[in-house]
Amino acid sequence: MFSFHPAFYIITIRGDDSGGKPGKLHQASLSGDEVEVRNILSKGPDLNLLDKSGRTPLHLAILGRHVKIIEMLLEAGADTSRLDESQDAPLHMAVRTGDENLVGIFLRLANCDVNIKGHGSRTALHIAADMDKISICKILMEHGASPDCCDDDNVTPLTQAVEKGAKNAAEFFFRRRSAA
Prior knowledge:
By secondary structure, the protein is mostly helical. It has 11 helices and no strands.
């Protein structure tokens, strides 16, 4: 029995908005083909063209955890604030990977709003707190993420952590609050 990465389904089954076939830059970004990405970028493509899930090549490079391609797309001017169909910005997607190295690299390379709000007005810090990823919470806060941002339900990342039973994240936020 075969199993495919969820991103494989997104790009190969759903396609993009240019006629139902996946765009070459989308495919190369997802698969990690640095040579092809470099070749396509040299032709000046629309870096922010959306597939049918509203994802840009940057979203797909993050899904595939292809750091070099992420770097190439950012240097070429990819939009870091574009929300996909699920209302995830590239930063939200990076946090959802649970990969602190990827999140740190993305934040160092990208000129992005660390407090960008996605679905339900949740920030990347809400997502990291929900996942109980203290290391990612720390990285986000070092880059200016606000622990006081509220989502649509007036929930902060601390409240999110407590409600979801993310004990490590809740302790992290409590310690930071009491130290202030």
